[in-house]
Structure formats: C-alpha cells, structure tokens
Amino acid sequence: MSRVHTVVDSPLGPLTLVATKGVLSGLFMDCDNRHRPDPSQLGSADAGVFGDVVEQLEAYFRGELRVFDVPLALEGTEFQLRVWRELSRIPFGETVTYADLAALVGRPASAARAVGTANGSNPVSVIVPCHRVVGSDGGLTGYAWGVERKRWLLDLESGTPALF
C-alpha cells in the first residue's frame, strides 16, 4: 500500500494528513493518541498530493467553506462506513444526537453506543464531521481531539469562533 503524509498547521494545532494511493485516508491530530496510527504506517513525507485538501481545510477554518469536496479512501467495517456516510450528510452548523444518528443508519436508538464507537473511529475528523454529534441533552460528549476543540468547531460553524 502506497502511503504518504504531510503535517499542516491549523487553528486547532498541527494536523497530519495521510494519503493512500494519492487519496486522503487519514487526518490526525497529535493529541489523538487513541486513533493516530503508528508513525511507521504514515508513509514517507510528501506534501505533493495534498494541495486541494489543504486549500479546503484553510477555507473551512476561515469560515468560507461549508462542504468538503475531496476524494476519501476510508477503511472500516461496513457499519463504520455507513455511519461515516451519514456523518457527511449532517449540514454545516447543525448537530444530531447519537440516537438520531443511530436512526439514520437504520439502527434503533439502543444502538447509540455502537454509533458512538464508529463515530469515534472516524479517520478523517473535520472533513467527515463527527464533531456535529452531541449527547441526547444537546451537551458535548467525548471527542478524540478534546471537547474544547469540538466546541471550537461548533462555534466556528455557528459564526462565533473563539480563539483556541
């Protein structure tokens, strides 16, 4: 498998972008030790394939981009892929609960925990907007990059970004 990576700056801290065969397959933050792959699995350093991804991320962080349009090479179970597809359909600036997301993937609300696990395994956070999923009471729940970053992303999308 041909993999390359690069590191780019963001308002939330450095992001590591990973491409598999020229297509984005990972977007990781240093603080996400649970999902970040071992450095040996990132491939060689090569910023050449990431131009469009970087441009779209920069536009998003400036509040100018609402929908990402980059090809993705996501690897996961059939259930994870279904959850990630539904995450991508949550409109900019809106949120859904884990129970809502479970219903969207055709599972009863009792599957909210399984949906949460799939949500937490999302390999391209921000682009597949797992930060748009909240608890049943609307409160912020766990986020691999930290609840403060989740709040910052939601505030950005509501038009009230704060300094991070």
Description:
The chain is an alpha/beta fold. It has five helices and six strands. The protein has helices at residues 51-61, 78-88, 98-104, 112-120, 147-158; strands spanning 3-8, 15-20, 23-29, 44-45, 96-97, 133-134. The protein has a four-stranded mixed β-sheet, with no helix packed on it. A two-stranded parallel ribbon has the order 5-6. Helix 3 (98-104) crosses helix 4.
Protein topology:
Elements: E1 3-8, E2 15-20, E3 23-29, E4 44-45, H1 51-61, H2 78-88, E5 96-97, H3 98-104, H4 112-120, E6 133-134, H5 147-158
Parallel strand pairs: 1-4, 5-6
Antiparallel strand pairs: 1-2, 2-3
Structurally, the number of domains stands at 2
Helix-residue proportion: 25-40%
Largest sheet: 4 strands, mixed
CATH topology heading of the largest domain = Arc Repressor Mutant, subunit A
- Summed over residues and divided by their number, the pLDDT gives a mean of 90
Question: Which structural class is indicated by helix and strand composition?
Answer: alpha/beta
Number of strands: 6
CATH homology superfamily name of the largest domain = Winged helix-like DNA-binding domain superfamily/Winged helix DNA-binding domain
